[in-house]
Amino acid sequence: MGFKDIFKKQINIKKEIKKSTKQDFTKSKYYWSLKRRETIKIIRNLNNKKISSLFFYTNESNIMRILEYGIQPINDINLKYNDKYIVWTYLEKGDHVELELSNSTRHYFWQWINQNNIDPKSIAIISIKIQKLFEKTKEDWIYNDKDKRIIIKENIPPECIEWILLKNFNYYERVKKYVDIYNLEIKIFSSKDSGLLYEK
User: Fold this and answer.
1) Where are the alpha helices (DSSP H) in the chain?
2) Cα–Cα distance between 118 and 42 in angstroms, integer?
3) Which of 5, 77, 79, 199 could pair covalently with 83 via S-S, beta carbons 3.0-4.6 A apart?
4) DSSP H stretches of helix in 49-165
5) In sequence order, which residues have a C-beta less than 8 Å from that of residue 90 and are 6 or more positions away?
6) What are the Cα distances from residue 88, in Å, to 130, 189, 191?
């Protein structure tokens, strides 16, 4: 099974891990905030389309840092001496981060991967919980209708992460250990050539 096939399993994975985390924004005390009308409008639109999560793609080597600092716009990434972060410009911009809708076909993502000669095995997929993202961010979101993306102009805390899917099983074990040690509420999945899924 190829890595692209794992995307096809997204719906099944989501069913497994969403049973206890079904989101109802209409009952959230945050939902009726008058300060973020554009964001609420976006959330309503996503709810109508039954979209409860957003995707962020990155190199697997960035995951440990993301678990510590969250997903940040490029200008906010401050590396320590000898630290390394691989920027993927597909969703990472200087002053904002873009998140793809979970129902996207990902055609343009795979096109970008091929054009930049990126090894598909290095891909990590991060699922972001929309309700938690709303609770943890302060600025109004922006909807990019052309690319079907949500623009976030601030840091996205690790608490917003719902699950992470990795191809590299060695990275999976490393990430799983970190999540276990710090008792993070994040599901970790990995795919091996056999197509088996491993869950934290």
Assistant:
1) 3-8, 10-18, 37-48, 63-69, 107-115, 130-136, 169-181
2) 32
3) 79
4) 63-69, 107-115, 130-136
5) 57, 109, 112
6) 22, 21, 22
Q: Nearest to residue 13, comparing CAs of 44, 40, 53?
A: 53
Distance CA 91, CA 82 (A): 24
Residues paired with 56 in a beta bridge? 126
Write down the pLDDT at residue 138: 93
Alpha helix ranges (H) inside 49-183: 63-69, 107-115, 130-136, 169-181
H helix intervals, 49-168: 63-69, 107-115, 130-136
Nearest to 145 by CA among 46, 62, 65: 46
Q: What is the pTM assigned to this prediction? A: 0.82
Contacts of 9 (CB under 8 A, 6+ apart): 197
